[in-house]
Amino acid sequence: MLDAQIVKESFDPKLITALFKNFSNQYIALFELIDNAVDDRQHNEKLIISIDYDPEDEKLFIKNFNGKGMSIDDLEKFFTWGHSDKTTGRIGRYGQGGKAALGYLAKSFNIKSHAKNKISGFVVKVKDWENRQTGFSDGFQVMPYQSQRDEGDVSFEIYNLKKEFRTDTIIERIRKTYRPLITQKKVEFLVENMPVKCAAIAYDRATYKTFATDFTHNGRKFHLTGEFGIVDDPKSDRGGFRIFQYGRSVADKEYFGHTDPSKRWNVERLYGELYIDFDLPLSMNKTEIDKDSELWRFIERTMNKQIAEIIKEAVDYKTPTKKESSSVDTINKKLKKSSENKGDTEFGLTNYGPKLLFKIEEGANGKNTVKINRDHRAYKLWSDTEAGKKYYAIMIYALTETIKKLSNAEQKKFLNEFSEYLGKKSAEILE
User: Fold this and answer.
1) Is 87 exposed, middle or buried (0-12, 13-18, 19+ CB in 10 A)?
2) Does residue 1 belong to any structural domain of this protein?
């Protein structure tokens, strides 16, 4: 009889090269490093983070001021793959994101760090971080220096870059990723010495609400806070909820049970932000939530109850009056009698910002509903009179028939141009 044998787990250090490639683009990698900078903040102290990009010299600088800084022990831990002693309230957790991001972005980097209230700071220079032929490095020399400051700071000078950046893209992604930290003045971001600001969300103030709610899972109490409301002019990045963990965006366009296709077009106007200050199960690069986790399912149920009332408001938002509906009702009656239409298309009214003329919704029963947009400037001008409402609806009907034979690209181009022209000319004639 053969004896049982033991197979042991092991780790090939050359796997580090694979971790260097674990990013879909340079901005996700960059934000791993910015996350590390954000995690250096202290309680009740505003952290300052500066990002500078020099495309000519192929250099990227990330510096944070007024944080804890890094001691020699912290530097040792930084270079330990898989080690993370970050406590609750910190974005990072896996102990490899920043190091892998450096390998994805560049061949070389320098770290200069000074821990808060320490006399000495330290500099580490890494010239060939990309070379992993023998797995782990033999070590990096740490050079001390005398500091004249008590505040903590950390700077990364990343050079021999393998990727290129756009400054405007960095700024826009910072706005989206760290909006609560910026608006609550916990972190100040400077890109090319210019402060990054966030505009207020354009909520309909009558529908705007903030909330705080609790739920219990596995004997532990969890606290959720956030805001929501109906936005008058939804943009491509609005609709659904954006989820922030410790002030960092980890998910976008989350819907808590309010995605009924027959109502989605108007409900898309509902936007909210959910702030979570506890650890969520996330993907390695913090771009996805584990939707199958029990914790997330509890959050979904809690939020579904929290927004039940505003869902009703969103569905009924700016409901058309009977007089407004009469014009489309007339068209619908005639379409039902039409032998060509065969009841496949009907008309309705909705609200969706000032640019769109109408939206065609495909129903589950195969019937298309053409929703005329009541927020369009031309509609508002024409609907001042009963005749105007009637003829406007007829014009939209004629437009939908006209574009049927056009390609999707041609439809989009034609409707965009016509929408702008109609609003302009309507104002000249009717105002």
Assistant:
1) exposed
2) no
